[in-house]
Amino acid sequence: MRLISGVWHLRGWFRLIVVVATLSAGDLHRWNPPMSVNGQKPNIILIMADDVGWNDVGWHNRDIATPNLNALVESGVELRSSYVTSLCSPSRAALLTGIYPFKLGLQHGVLKATKPHGLPLNVTLLPERLRRLGYATHMIGKWHLGFCNWAYTPTYRGFDSFFGFYTGQQDYFRHTTDGGYDFRYNKKVFRPKTKRYSTTTFGKHAADVIYNHKRPGPLFIYLALQAAHAPLQVPQKFEDLHRNITNQRRRKFAGMVAAADEAVGEIMTALRKSNMHKNTLIVFLSDNGATPLGAGNNWPLRGGKSTLWEGGTRVPSFIWGKMLKVRTPMIHRGMIHVVDWYPTVIAAAGGKPEAERDIDGIVQWDMLRLGLPSNRTQFVYNINRITGSAALRLSDAPGEYCSAR
């Protein structure tokens, strides 16, 4: 292999795998010491949007109505080099384990509803670690990490409660998919009394979790929004916010993002009314880039969902919290990968992420809290032997990466 302009060009799969193994065992485990927040463990709300691209949010595109998210960005830290994998299930697995999907057997695509497998049971998930630190843990929204056996489902993987659906997509009003019904409250099938839009339902449930939280113990919510994944469905009032968009499909998509924004607004209202907002950390990111054929938009980034280009893997993201010591608003251009959130959240919660020896994530708490440079200068986009594609980032400049086919 040889180095040209900061990019490693690799010839052959064996060399690529050797380099990945070297990074995982060495450079990727430079831990920062764990830190608590103002002597108290913060409440943590981790929000993952679905198929929302770079140009699908109000702080990148004025045509999109996201006032609540915009307000958080304007008083928080926008992450301009936030990377994920290019598909749903792999990104969710990486988020909750801190491990690259190709090490979990999840690098080849999304988990299909009829397939008898899921996120491996021999890995410890983020909510399990937070439980040990005294957190109440709740998941709301899209799981998409397997349900062939109860052991693979959220309430068996560290969550005290689950309110949402197991599969990758469904009707937003009827909650149907693949000819069946998919909506659970914990283990039981849940049928709302009225056909409320799912994004609205998830936002209101998150608010209820906040109102009902028993303090002084800390709270963790993982809100995996359905929006703005297909199908293109949204109440008319959200679509009407975007009458200046002439393309109907794009207008509906924008409305779906606006509905997600309203759900975030419900959460912020609940935090303030419960006097919890001053000690709550909020993280927002998308699971992958948008699908242009599905009315999403990643401009000016190249490519989209399911591709290894920037448009498929670099997503809108921010972190917000009164405990951040930087002057806000701040734009941080340091690199952060989805696997980093696992040890970083543990560090923010006052845990000991250095004890996690078998993960690929790097603690980025000082980067986020103090505005220091990122600890990351490389990551693996993916290694997929079935499709014969892979990419490894060895540069701190956006868009510079190598690929092997």
Biggest β-sheet strands, sense, barrel:
10 strands, mixed
Pick out the low-confidence regions.
1-37, 401-405
C-alpha Rg, in Å? 20 Å
Q: How would you state the average pLDDT, rounded?
A: 89
Query: Strand share of the residues?
Result: 15-25%
Structural class: alpha/beta
Head-to-tail CA distance between termini: 15 Å
Binned, the helix content reads 10-25%
Q: Strand sequence of the main sheet, in spatial order?
A: 10-9-6-5-11-3-12-13-4-14
| Shape field | globular
Q: Got a strand count?
A: 17
Question: What is the N-to-C order of secondary-structure elements (H for helix, E for strand)?
Answer: EEHEHEHHEEEEEEHEHHEHEEHHEEE
- Determine the number of helices (DSSP H or I, runs of at least 4 residues): 10
